[in-house]
Amino acid sequence: MNSGTTLLIFAAAATAGCSSAKKDAPPPNIIYILADDLGYGDLSCYGQQKFSTPNIDRLAREGMLFTQHYTGSTVSAPSRSCLMTGLHTGHTPIRANREWEPEGHAAFAAMIKQLDDYVGEIMEKLCELGLEKNTIIFFASDNGPHLEGGADPYYFDSNGPLRGYKRDLYEGGIRTPLLVKWPEKIKAGSTSDHISAFWDMMPTLAEISGTELTEQTDGISFLPGLLGKKQKEHEYLYWEFHEQGGKTAARMGNWKAMKLNINQDPRGETELYDLSKEIGETSNIASSHPDIVKRMEEIMKQAHTSSEIFTFSFENY
Ligand SMILES: [Ca+2]
Ligand SMILES: [Ca+2]
Asked: Taking the model in full, what pTM does it have?
């Protein structure tokens, strides 16, 4: 986390007021809050013990907490690209980090407190303006906690029970908190295990606002799940990362597969984990499930489209 960009509100469709004089309820306002480098274990409602996040926890208490939501990527720029395009990193134009990342000098807990205060202020303001009921608030983080800079993710156990950090495709790098509050629509204090990712946001927001998506998307709207209705599942999720030798990962059901050093060794080992058995990805069980490994390798090959800027060497192999 850095103090400069801890909070980003990029979608606020103000629809309140008397412009469209329809008899039905006006479409909701949408607020999406994206924290920077906030880990899966960095909120009290996700188990943080060293500090508390009372305002953000209110979103969980009054809305829905997602246990299996994923960022677009393990670093900021491509992650946000997935959010804005509705595509995964095998299809987005931006696949590497180009941003400037200042080191955090303030104490980590103080930064989180500031973030938490901001969220409290937003909720207070909505109440004050009488907009609370007709506003849906999303809160997520753009990638896992980072090891560089002032933060001490070991001390704070910022990745919670997950393995890895920012720049990893292990769960700690890409699984993020997601809280969604929408009074009288989303059941207060509910939890969802739906497997979703940043590329689902565009179709979800489109459905909420009644807009037709004309662009191609890898995402699936999770509005039905938010409303407690039957939710369509992904066949798989896919990520690729072009630093540290190149990495790809896929999740299909509870299976998680990963390839490291893909540029050096495109036909190298594929790691395989069963997240229903252990969320911490400690035991690679690839050798006992060759059929699953084969399927996951097919998925990873199929999901990646070549890009002029971000190529893996296996494309020329
Ligand atoms: Ca970030
Ligand atoms: Ca941990």
From this structure: 0.90
